[in-house]
Design goal:
The complex is a heterodimer of chains A (91) and B (298).
Chain A: H1 3-40, H2 44-88
Chain B: H1 2-22, E1 32-35, E2 38-39, H2 44-50, E3 57-62, H3 80-88, E4 90-96, H4 103-120, E5 127-133, H5 135-150, E6 160-164, H6 172-186, H7 190-199, H8 204-208, E7 222-229, H9 234-240, H10 247-250, E8 268-272, H11 283-294
Parallel strand pairs in B: 3-4, 3-5, 5-6, 6-7, 7-8
Antiparallel strand pairs in B: 1-2, 1-4
The chains are: A mainly alpha (91), B alpha/beta (298).
Chain lengths: 91, 298
């Protein structure tokens, strides 16, 4: 396996790790927050606002992790392009 | 730097090599023989160039989980391959492979590679000696099984096989890992479930190490086993073995007389005071290997 293929592999592995890691952390954050929210949503006077805050929380968490994954993919594409250029360069 | 890089890549392959192979990742190691750190072309010209003095006896050294070929190296730079070349005229071949793949998969790949090797060997070949360390021994067993199924010609050249620190009956560390992962997954907490998922990412190769090898030692070959023991106390030695492989597993059941097929006592050597990794480059282990190789198999 060439050095360049290994660099590509390393870039892909880091990209995969960030992608899967971000999804896993997002799921844990939502599940952890879900517990107090479920309790709060069963208390009649604050149930409505609690549901609204829960929704905002989940959307925010998804947004932050979505942004992380988006940047990760963009960096991955840029790295692939840079490695392709390096591959084409005469040695 | 090159040696360290290969060690890091070998460790990565052992941990998640099945994922690397499945996703076509360039870090996945292909099954190959290596010389001076580079894979060999298994063609007549490639082998003739690599081994201008190829002999009629070849020893194939198959390393263990997360190991590169440097695991064989002794402090003075020698290894079992170079010593067998010097003392008994073997030509040493060092296998490198993705230890994260399942053991049967690697066995089939090794069998195919050996078939190509025998076809392209630049000299008449009388003997092929597989020498596996740890998981490498199980890969050798799988390769012999695969060769039987495929009718490979190289198997006829194998008169004996040597297994060093090989967990024939599985490794308890992997079984403990399975239990821990199951317990963590059963706890209704997102963090423990995440920990269980992380633990479950270990490779197929690692998971295979938890079980006894599914195929028996092949008839028609003399099998020689070396097991390590950190303790000289028989009870502690039986329980902990070389710290990774218990005595019963390393000796294929001979030490505890409950194996599926016990070997003659002369075919099993227990080396006291040597840990698992050190078995791959220990002078006492080599002395035993040499003694076995000096005997002409009937």
């Amino acid at each position: 396996m060439s050095d360049l293929a290994r660099w590509r592999g390393l870039a892909a592995l880091v990209r995969d790790a960030i992608e899967h890691g971000s999804r896993a952390v997002e799921r844990v954050q939502k599940e952890t927050a879900n517990r107090p929210f479920v309790v709060l949503e069963h208390i009649p006077p604050i149930a409505g606002p609690a549901r609204a805050v829960h929704l905002v929380h989940d959307v925010t968490v998804s947004g932050v992790h979505g942004a992380v994954r988006l940047v990760n993919r963009a960096v991955g594409v840029a790295l692939d392009a840079a490695l392709a250029l390096a591959d084409e360069r005469p040695r | 730097m090159g040696k360290r890089l290969e060690m890091a890549v070998a460790a990565l392959n052992g941990a998640v090599g099945d994922y690397l192979a499945r996703t076509g990742n360039g870090l996945a190691t292909e099954m190959a023989f290596v010389k001076d750190g580079a894979p060999l072309a298994v063609t007549r010209a490639g082998l003739a160039a690599a081994f201008p003095d190829a002999t009629s006896r070849a020893v194939v050294l198959v390393p263990g989980l997360m190991c590169s070929e440097s695991i064989w190296q002794m402090p003075d730079g020698d290894d079992y391959g170079t010593l067998l070349a010097r003392d008994l005229g073997f030509t040493p071949l060092y296998a490198r492979y993705n230890t994260g793949l399942s053991i049967p998969d690697n066995g089939a790949r090794l069998a195919a590679l050996l078939e190509a090797l025998v076809g392209a060997w630049p000299a008449p070949l009388d003997e092929l000696l597989p020498l596996g360390f740890s998981m490498g021994g199980l890969v050798v067993r799988s390769a012999c099984h695969a060769a039987t199924l495929e009718g490979h010609g190289w198997l006829k050249l194998v008169r004996r096989a040597i297994y060093v620190g090989t967990p024939h009956h599985g490794a308890p560390l992997e079984r403990i890992g399975r239990v821990v992962a199951r317990v963590l997954a059963a706890v209704p907490d997102p963090y423990t479930r995440l920990a269980a998922q992380l633990g479950d990412m270990r490779s197929e190769g690692v998971k295979d190490l938890g079980d006894a090898h599914p195929v028996p030692l092949l008839d028609g070959i003399r099998h020689y086993l070396v097991a390590g023991s950190l303790s000289t106390d028989p009870r502690l030695a039986a329980l902990f073995g070389d710290a990774m492989v218990p005595m019963g597993s390393g000796t294929n059941g001979l030490a505890q007389a409950r194996g599926t097929r016990a070997l003659p006592p002369g075919h099993v050597k227990v080396v006291a005071g040597v840990g698992h990794i050190a078995l791959a480059h220990d002078p006492h282990v080599y002395a035993q290997i040499r003694e076995w190789c000096e005997k002409e198999p009937s």
